[in-house]
Amino acid sequence: MSATITExxxxxxxxxxxxxxxxxxxxxxxxxNEEQRxxxxxxxxxxxxxxxxxxxxxxxxxxxxxxxLLEMMADLGLLGSHMPEAYGGMEMxxxxxxxxxxxxxxxxxxxxxxxxxxxxxxxxxxxxYGTEQQKEAYLPRLISGELKAAYCLTEPGxxxxxxxxxxxxxxxxxxxxxxxxxxxxxNAGFADVFIVFAQVDGDKFTGFIVPKGLEGLTLGAEEDxxxxxxxxxxxxxxxxxxxxxxxxxxxxxxGHLIAFxxxxxxxxxxxxxxxxxxxxxxxxxxxxxxxxxxxxxxxxNFGAIKYKIGEAGIRIxxxxxxxxxxxxxxxxxxxxxxxxxxxxxxxKLLSAEEYAIECALLKFLGSETLDYTVDEVVQIHGGMGYxxxxxxxxxxxxxRINRIYEGTNEINRLLSVDMLLRRAMxxxxxxxxxxxxxQKELSGMPGLDRPTGxxxxxxxxxxxxxxxxxxxxxxxxxxxMDGKLNLKSEQEILMNVADMLGDLLQAESTLMRVQKMxxxxxxxxxxxxxxxxxRTYLHDATFRMQKNATDAVASFVEGDLLRxxxxxxxxxxxxxxxxxxxxxxxxxxxxxxxxxxxx
Length: 599
Prior knowledge:
Layout lengths: L5 E2 L11 E2 L13 H18 L3 H6 L4 H11 L18 H14 L3 H12 L1 H6 L2 H12 L5 E4 L15 E5 L2 E12 L6 E8 L3 E8 L5 E3 L13 E12 L3 E2 L5 H37 L1 E2 L2 E2 L4 H37 L4 H11 L1 H26 L10 H9 L8 H18 L5 H11 L13 H26 L9 H30 L6 H27 L5 H13 L8 H15 L5
Helix pairs in contact: 1-4, 4-8, 5-8, 8-9, 8-11, 9-10, 9-11, 9-16, 9-17, 9-19, 11-12, 11-13, 11-16, 13-16, 14-15, 15-16, 15-17, 15-18, 16-17, 17-18, 17-19
């Protein structure tokens, strides 16, 4: 890139917009070591042995199946893979824990919700914010599977507006008295420990550890849901429930820190689960396309079907590339913080918080890739895709929730841009300088020379994506400073920018992965297959960038200024058109021939 972009080895959260990371710093699945491959096989063996044969039981919540499976996972150490050894955990690194979620997302049906709710939002509040006494009392038993956890945040009147909760907690002697109602609580039907948020004195949002069995704590009936039917989801009621004062979690009035920081990890894990789920779903579609004969040949031979398979494969490959890139960044930050003297819990908390922007982007990227994939798998099945005789309908129903929980995708889009601008205002990220350099570049003559060398066009495209986002976001921010625009009430603009950031993150991550694979001779397929995926993604992303940028600037400028910005948009979206029909078919044919997702 030009002088607007610096280069360094370890990027801070959100810094991918203004800095180039050498591709050698990224991590990719092709680099798993022997120990990680053994963990992957162990998880897959467990799924094949204990989960797949019981999917119907899981779906019907028969025989107390979900808590029993959690206990079996505990026996393998999988409930504490991300926890300190001091409490019985395994202390596996971030990449290994990401891999576990990736595999779990592939074939575990709605049991993944029970697993993720227990190990993530159920356990992490205690690890991050619990006192030593609280950690010693609960974490070993949660890791061993003796206790199961649930997380109680949402209420009938407060969903995305979590701080608007009405549940109250009033101090009465040595206990807080809780009154209120929570809804959509995963694992509620079998949980032994509830992480509950309530308002102390009416306005101090606070977390509490609430054991099952306290008088006044009752459950509603199981919700009749569209999907994830195998996960327990109930309302939880509190009527004068006396919770020991020592069970308050973190500081009184600081419960928002618990809620928001735990969700950073939840969003990242949801992306991992979604990537794994998309791979598995696509394989179901590929196998059906190879088996279904129409017009005397498999439907996988037809271009319309190849498009669906190839496009889903490319989106999954891009999402997986971003997943493990960010996983490595979180892991590197975690190691750095521990080297500086932070505790295990502090390092985990702060490293996830550092990449909160990336976690928000990944959440909507992964869930929408999974949604696209399962929708096309239903379409590939045709009429059979509407029949419960196949897996397609269940996958379709189960995927839909991912765009809603862990913060809706709309909320995550808004958050990603809001957090980026806040970091810039605090001086944590220098966006103003690079944005000003882009403005100066716009006033000069565009260069006529095309880039040369391996991936020259692709490198320039990613560089131009960054400049385009800086141009649009910078212009919007200036309009706001001049009093001509209020971004809080112009959510459409923020969502345009968020989509551009998401495309940038996945495009650059995919480019870094493909560069590294070619240099080191990694990957099970020919380099041309990965190049085809990269070039197709960049081709399509270029047009999405152009539309999002145009939609954004046209909503707050007009006349000569709009024409100037339009010229800038054209200048920064010049990736050469690709024969995407041919490239997408290269990817599709590779997957069809393998009868599986093999990128």
